[in-house]
Amino acid sequence: MDNPHPAPAIYIQLKNRVTVPKGKGVMLRDVAFLITEPEWREPLYSLLLLQPEQSDGNLILIDLLTVIPRIHELLPHADIQPIGEGRTIVQIEGPATANKPSIALFVLVWLLLFFGSALTIMNFHADVSMQEVQIRIVEMLTGRRDEHPYVFQIAYSLGIGLGMVIFFNHLFKKKWNEEPTPLEVEMFLYQKNIDHYVVNEEYSKMKRRGDDTSGRRGE
């Protein structure tokens, strides 16, 4: 006799990194995209995968090998087809009040970056004798020597600012095109390296816990 309820095919893709509020359980909808029969979609998305504890810290690794058994508890004969990466990083986020930006901290960082950049540019100009170069350029263009070529220096300063805006493809919140800025690329690579480190560290912890459990059983 044919089975009236054949095992559904489930295509699952884990997200790369997700944020979950503190105190909330991690459900399958939080960490994965699913393609399956409509009647099974909501029950699967509502599966509770993990209830974070204080000892888990604020970064938790969820592996596909821990997700599949939870799905099989609901659908024992489901045909699960994983797509993409087999793990996701869950970041536990504290209360919203704790994440409000500090105006004082923003001003402090802004001043630090502003004066740090200004000192870097001035030190570079001092190293290459930029003032003497500018004096010489003005002398070549006008035929007379001016020890304080303010017009040229003002134009040069404005050019530096315009060049930075074009290079970073950003003016406040406005972007000139859809290309990522160098800063965005560096932040992306930085976050990718952090995620890679977290994954390796979490796998190492899981391995150590497994070894400890095996050792206690051997005793």
TrEMBL record:
This is Stage V sporulation protein AA. Residues 9-93 form the Stage V sporulation protein AA domain. The keyword Transmembrane applies. The chain crosses the membrane at residues 103-124, 150-172. Keywords: Membrane, Transmembrane, Transmembrane helix.
